[in-house]
């Protein structure tokens, strides 16, 4: 029974995580907007007026596609990645602050020693007691 409840809650969290978390929900809409920008990118150049042979046309279109769209797609991809990374960092830091989880640096040392205690009356405030 408990295992099925945990599985059910896990599936719900995985399904609704982006809409539940206020930071991730905003990022989802921002990333969606960036993806919609790709619909406006023209993958063909319609500026050729004179008739071309197939090989010339293919070369012309391939060069246009490589120069124009690849740059735009790289910019959109980097914007999506940076949005996702920054938002996940914000969400994790907010989660840690709300649950009073102390931040650590790369070496495992605590960053902020002036944090509020986990339990009211606990003067150490560093670790959760096991009693």
Overall description:
This protein has a domain at 2-90. Helices cover 61% and strands 0% of the residues. It has helices at residues 2-20, 22-37, 54-98. The radius of gyration is 25 Å and the shape is elongated. 2% of the residues are buried.
Chain-averaged pLDDT: 78
Structural class: mainly alpha
User: How large is the count of helical segments?
Assistant: 3
Portion of residues in beta strands equals: under 5%
Query: What Rg do the Cα atoms give?
Result: 25 Å
Tell me the helix content.
55-70%
Cα-to-Cα separation, first versus last residue: 27 Å
Number of strands: 0
What kind of sheet is the major sheet? none
What spatial form do the alpha-carbon principal axes imply? elongated
The run of helices and strands is HHH
Low-confidence stretches: none
